Amino acid sequence: MAADDASLRAEGLLKRYGGRLALADAALTLRAGRIGGIIGPNGAGKSTLVGVLAGTVRPDDGRISLAGRDIAGLSQRARARRGLARGFQTPHIFASLTLREHITLCAPDGGWGWEAARLLGLTDALDRTCGTFSHGMRRLVEICHLAASRPAVLLLDEPAAGLTSFEMGQLGDALRWLRARCAVGVVEHNMGFLLKLVDEVTVLEAGRVIAHGPPAAITADAAVRRAYLGLSYAAD
Which residues constitute the domain of residue 23? Predict the structure, then answer.
């Protein structure tokens, strides 16, 4: 699959909530073979952006295309059928189902779910009921569930939240494996995790994109430091 064949592009996104502007001419491009990070201070519009891309939030204006085809008017379900998978800040899983059932629910053959489970260290837990899992493990179950559908684009909202350092390492391995198969976009507050993982970063402030580029350039950008990273921030 060529990189452009599985890319998600959004331009000119505008979203207002009453008198508050949540997105203002926001833009994002995600390509297969790359992981894009999305950062910004609280209230910057990150989750709104993910919701607009996934179809759970209706924008007031803007263009969105998947593999070159306009999807701006499509429902969340229709976008999912075209290959756009989205994770949530609170994992959306079924407590009464096992991990194996979560994977086969998306694809009878398991899709990429089995390999994701291996990389996430969950192969011994395939037949455990997910209601018995810790919060961190539930996040990893959601990754397996999404990977099973063989998405063209995978959007994740704070996937490292609540994970141990060991689990974050496993998550990073799984996302790098998925990067070779689809476009990945990650909203994340854990900068140490994010900057070691992504190929490029988009920075939002007050709904606007104020910077975009590779991690090294973003961490050196004075405007980004003032808006989000803090003047004393240093990448490890």
Answer: 3-229
Q: CA 66: distance to chain centroid?
A: 15
Percent pLDDT > 70 in the chain is 93
**CB-based contact 200:212 (threshold 8 Å):** yes
Task: Determine how many CB atoms are found less than 10 A away from the CB of residue 226.
Answer: 12
Residue 234 located in a structural domain: no
Query: Is the torsion defined by CA of 147, 153, 157, 163 positive or negative?
Result: positive
The verdict on residue 17 lying in a domain is yes
Distance of alpha carbon 186 from alpha carbon 198, whole angstroms: 8
The pLDDT value given to residue 226: 75
Domain membership of residue 236 (yes or no) is: no
pTM for the full model? 0.90
Report the residue count for the chain.
236
- The Cα–Cα gap between 206 and 45 comes to 7
54 close to 8: Cβ distance less than 8 angstroms: no
Mean of the pLDDT values across residues 110-118?
A: 97
Q: Helix or strand or coil: residue 49?
A: helix
Torsion over CA of 175, 3, 84 and 184, rounded to 10 degrees?
Answer: 30
The pLDDT tens digits for 1-10 are 344 444 899 9
Which CATH number belongs to the domain containing residue 104 in this structure? Answer: 3.40.50.300
Is residue 125 assigned to a domain? Answer: yes
Indicate the number of domains in the chain: 1
| pLDDT, tens digit (0-9, with 9 covering 90-100), for 136-152 | 999 999 999 999 999 99
